[in-house]
Design a protein that fits this description.
Number of domains: 4
Strand content: 5-15%
Strand order of the largest sheet: 6-8-9-10-7-11
Helix content: 40-55%
CATH architecture of the largest domain: Up-down Bundle
CATH superfamily of the largest domain: Peptidase M41
Oligomer: single chain
Largest sheet: 6 strands, mixed
Bound molecules: adenosine-5'-diphosphate, zinc ion
Number of strands: 14
CATH topology of the largest domain: Methane Monooxygenase Hydroxylase, Chain G, domain 1
């Protein structure tokens, strides 16, 4: 299925483009001359001369008499030849008399309605440009192997790696990942002063594997190494190696290493190496020949240069577990460096880096931003400051204030702000739903505290309750997980309680999915159910080709159904907790809903104060990050 639409797109473009030219060709003024079209031109004077000397045998007039194709005997070789002659239409009557007198056969071909035709062609340019733009878009958006763009590049032997002579990035531009930075500092020395190592007989490592989620700065780090060492930076993404057509990837690898050798010392960066480097033979439905060839070529190239040629290959991946073990052998990517998302301090560091070139109001502390953004990667933080700067410019302010930062955080996390609903029943329902979440979250001791509740829609969500997660705690207890399940059930529970079972909405779909995921993990991974302390699923919940799919049936049907029963029990338990809290606090909930509809946003502090007027709010240990 996927292939067929790709082929349609692939073929429709050349067909449209060729069709366009053919079409244009058929209707263009000179095309009608068909076989008669003559390559050589003849002056009008020469034509008259030929006419007088009786060499001309045939004349065809085109375009209202402004062009003629003249058939005449060539005086040089006495063969019949054709010439093209530009005429003045005013001369036509005179010429036709002359031709008639001389008894030469001639014909006149009426002009076409060219104005309208070209207008129509003009209209056609737009769709053609559009198709061109789509074509480019497909190429760009395809970072995935086998994405639609892959098909477009076929037949193009152009090497697809980039080379930067100077990256201009230094270690100071990378923050929050100090351990990785320290580990890699040595690579700079390898590149700058290899003699120091070779003199004592040390073999310089050729490859380093950076392991970490997207956006944590792996590319940035590699660039910084090249920048610090002052060597060129070659980069390519693993997905760009893998093409639909066998052999292209391998030749790209060859090209890349050839270029790198010419420019040594240098650094090669291969992003998403898992696209090529997956365990061979793991593909379902037969191996991918092309990928294997590419990988083999990569291995050959890595073996093919000596450690002291001054080339260091850095590869990045988020899935070291799927990589072919051959890649990790000594002499290849034998060093692994973990690059993780930044912690609180790291986030401050990254914010400092990206705040350097931005105007930020003096009352904004980067610490407070860092506190609001647990789980953000370097890329998210840089994006956040940029969004805030854009908002500031849009609001015509001098410097970024807390307001813009707050809006930008919401936007980065939850998407674009939509227009709030007008007061209606559904707005009321959403308000109950959100207050339900917030109320359960507030009254359960083990739940993260509410940061704010809002009815301003963002992205897919029509209302949102934000919690302040307690990030620096590494382990999560069973009661915390249970509290999260109950909190996620809070929305649906409130809908049921207030509007009845028939009125509940699809709005809780996402919540229920979350509940199911958490409950399933409690049962299968953390041994937190009546099934006992068993791990019933592999760590990586994600199913990828070859690996996860096979490991699914590690347990019997019987256990599978008891897992389902346990998941259900946990979800129901959470639901009951939520229902009870909603029932017991109906009065406070009604008041908060009215306030929320009136104000659209209530912050956590105020929310807790109002709840405290009705019932006791448990104290929560809140982690206060130390700077
Ligand atoms: P990855 O390669 O891990 O996906 P990138 O290096 O492409 O991530 O990061 C994208 C951008 O995010 C960088 O160009 C940089 O602006 C910002 N960024 C990411 N991590 C950091 C960091 N640790 N320090 C500073 N900026 C960072
Ligand atoms: Zn919800």
């Amino acid at each position: 299925m996927k292939l067929s639409w790709r082929l349609i797109v692939l073929w429709s473009i050349p067909i449209l483009v060729i069709g366009f030219f053919l079409w244009q060709g058929t209707f263009s003024p000179t095309a009608g001359m068909g076989n008669n079209s003559a390559n050589t031109k003849m002056t009008y004077g020469r034509f008259l001369e030929y006419l007088d000397s009786g060499r001309v045998t045939n004349v065809d007039l085109y375009e209202g008499g402004s062009t003629a194709i003249v058939e005449a005997v060539d005086p040089l070789d006495r063969t019949l030849n054709r010439w093209r002659v530009d005429l003045l239409p005013a001369n036509t009557p005179e010429l036709t008399t002359k031709l008639r007198d001389a008894g030469i056969s001639f014909d006149s071909h009426p002009p076409r309605n060219d104005g309208a035709l070209w207008g129509f062609l003009g209209n056609l340019i737009f769709p053609v440009l559009l198709i061109g733009a789509l074509f480019l878009l497909f190429r760009r958006s395809s970072n995935m192997p086998g994405g639609p763009g892959q098909a477009m590049n076929f037949g193009k032997s152009r090497a697809r790696f980039q080379m930067e002579a100077k990256t201009g990035v230094v270690f100071d531009d990378v923050a929050g990942i100090d351990e990785a930075k320290e580990e890699l500092q040595e690579i700079v020395t390898f590149l700058k002063q290899p003699e120091r190592f070779t003199a004592v007989g040390a073999r310089i490592p050729k490859g380093v594997l950076l392991v970490g989620p997207p956006g944590v700065g792996k590319t940035l780090l590699a660039k910084a190494i090249a920048g610090e060492a002052g060597v060129p930076f070659f980069s390519i993404s693993g997905s760009e190696f893998v093409e639909m057509f066998v052999g292209v990837g391998a030749s790209r690898v060859r090209d890349l290493f050839k270029k790198a050798k010419e420019n040594a010392p240098c650094l090669i960066f291969i992003d998403e190496i898992d696209a090529v480097g997956r365990q061979r033979g793991a593909g379902i439905g037969g191996g991918n020949d092309e990928r294997e060839q590419t990988l083999n070529q990569l291995l050959t190239e890595m073996d093919g240069f000596e450690g002291n040629t001054g080339i260091i290959v850095i590869a990045a991946t988020n899935r070291p577990d799927v990589l072919d073990s051959a890649l990790m052998r000594p002499g290849r990517f034998d060093r692994q460096v973990i690059v993780d998302g930044p912690d609180f301090k790291g986030r401050i560091g990254i914010l400092e880096v990206h705040a350097r070139n931005k105007k930020i109001a003096p009352d904004v502390s980067l610490e407070s931003i860092a506190r609001r953004t647990p789980g953000f990667t370097g890329a998210d933080l840089s994006n956040l400051l940029n969004e805030a700067a854009i908002l500031t410019a849009r609001r015509r302010k001098e410097a970024i204030t807390l307001l813009e930062i707050d809006d930008a955080v919401d936007r980065v996390v939850a998407g674009m702000e939509g227009t709030p609903l007008v007061d209606s029943k559904s707005k009321r329902l959403i308000a109950y739903h959100e207050v339900g979440h917030a109320m359960v979250g507030t009254l359960l001791k083990d739940h993260d505290p509410v940061q704010k509740v809002t009815l301003v829609p963002r992205g897919q969500a029509r209302g949102l309750t934000w919690f302040t997660p307690n990030e620096e705690q590494g382990l999560i207890t069973r009661s915390q997980l249970m509290a999260r399940i109950a909190g996620a059930m809070g929305g649906r529970a409130a809908e049921e309680e207030i509007f009845g079972n028939d009125e509940v909405t699809t709005g809780a779909g996402g919540d229920l999915q979350q509940v199911t995921n958490m409950a399933r993990q409690m049962v299968t991974r953390f041994g937190m159910s009546d099934l006992g302390p068993l791990s019933l699923e592999s760590q990586s919940g994600e199913v990828f080709l070859g690996g996860g799919l096979m490991s699914r049936a590690e347990y019997s049907e019987e256990i599978a159904s008891s897992i389902d029963a346990q998941v259900k029990a946990l979800a129901e338990h959470g639901h009951n907790i939520a229902r009870k809290i909603i029932q017991e606090n109906r009065e406070a909930i009604d008041r908060l809903v009215d306030l929320l509809i009136e104000r659209e946003t209530i912050n956590g502090e105020e929310f807790r104060q109002i709840v405290a007027e009705y019932t006791q709010v448990p104290e929560k240990e809140q982690f206060v990050p130390q700077v």
